[in-house]
Design a protein that fits this description.
334 residues, alpha/beta, DHBP synthase, Rossmann fold, 2 domains, 4-stranded parallel sheet, 20% strand, globular
């Protein structure tokens, strides 16, 4: 049975955080909110506990995990080397949605890094996450708290839907603020390489440390979670429309409805009078898409959509992270 504890997001109750920290210290699994999505946490220094994460999620063993720390001192337990550029980014963007790939400390469980010499690490901005790590007194390895391949969870209810009975505890801190996963930046290459776009943009990184590159090199991508295996996908087929007009999207949805129920996520207000058509209307902004997209995919799945049509947005700035997730959700070759 999975216990769910309801917390005050701004002032988390110490006694409830301590209950969860005790589960972590004893080798258990606790789902908790961050500012990005809910994570599924275990003691990053306990190999058996970390392996339970992979089992609970059905996660491929070659997909590394992100380790979460609560302060700069704890980073030294996780990483063996932290260079000047990494220190500059830590000063600018931690706590926050930026994951740095660094040289791995031998004290971290080997399966965290999927056999690699590197480790992905970040410091979450969420108060519940920070307090949980501090009270557990250990770095916490935590991928998204969903079954592998499914849309990431942005509420405790999403976690329950995917993992009830498979993990020990869920800390319910309400809906996450950002809604998509962190930027992953590889600091072991020169120049540093973005392995997964996120809410900290390439432009912001460049301003802080100079040039950074985007990479799709397979060897480099091994060091990042969330980029090589199937991710962010509902049960329904996803069709991403990046540049077509509202009229063209209307026609596409109408044609697809001839073959079964259709869902639509986008900022165009389609007028289709059909009980087999459900839609989620979003603002034409990266912020609203990021905050809402995973919940919308799950909602349309529950409503029985056979196909979900998603209207894309501009992929500049934060929009690059949103479109990265949508393209992965729609891909059929992951």
């Amino acid at each position: 049975m999975t216990f769910v504890l309801k917390l005050d997001a701004q002032h988390p109750q110490p006694e409830l955080i301590e209950q969860a920290a005790s589960v972590i210290r004893q080798g258990g699994l606790v789902a908790f909110p961050t500012e990005t999505v809910y994570g599924l946490g275990a003691d990053a220094m306990n190999e058996l506990a970390v392996q339970r994460i992979f089992e609970a999620k059905g996660r491929p063993a070659d997909n590394p995990l992100i380790v979460h720390v609560c302060d700069r001192a704890m980073l030294d337990l996780v990483a063996s080397e932290v260079g000047a550029k990494a220190e500059a980014l830590i000063a600018a963007y931690w706590p926050g949605p930026l994951t740095l790939v660094l040289k791995r400390s031998q004290r971290i469980a080997a399966s965290v890094s999927a056999g690699l010499s590197t480790v992905a690490v970040r410091m979450p901005r969420n108060q519940i996450a920070s307090e949980l790590i501090r009270r557990a007194a250990t770095p916490i390895a935590a991928p998204s708290a969903n079954r592998s391949g499914r849309p990431s969870p942005t509420t405790a209810a999403h976690v329950t839907s995917d993992l009830d009975g498979r993990i020990d505890m869920i800390l319910d801190g309400g809906e996450t603020i950002i809604g998509i996963e962190s930027t992953v930046l590889d600091m072991t290459s020169e120049p540093p390489a973005i392995l997964r776009p996120g809410w900290v943009t390439r432009e912001q990184l460049t301003e802080a440390i100079g040039p950074v590159q985007l990479t799709k090199a397979a060897e480099a991508l091994k060091r990042s979670p969330g980029v090589r295996h199937k991710h962010y996908s509902p049960r329904a087929q996803v069709v991403l429309v990046e540049h077509d007009s509202a009229a063209s999207i209307h026609q596409l949805c109408s044609e697809l409805l001839k073959e079964g129920p259709v869902g639509f996520i986008g900022h165009s207000r389609l007028e289709i009078d059909d009980p087999a058509f459900n839609l989620v209307i979003l603002e034409n902004s990266a912020e609203d898409y990021a905050r809402s997209i995973y919940a919308a995919l799950r909602k349309l799945d529950e409503q029985g959509a056979r196909v979900i049509v998603i209207e894309g947005i501009n992929d500049e700035g934060e929009g690059a992270a949103v479109m990265d997730r949508l393209r992965r959700s729609a891909a059929d070759d992951q």
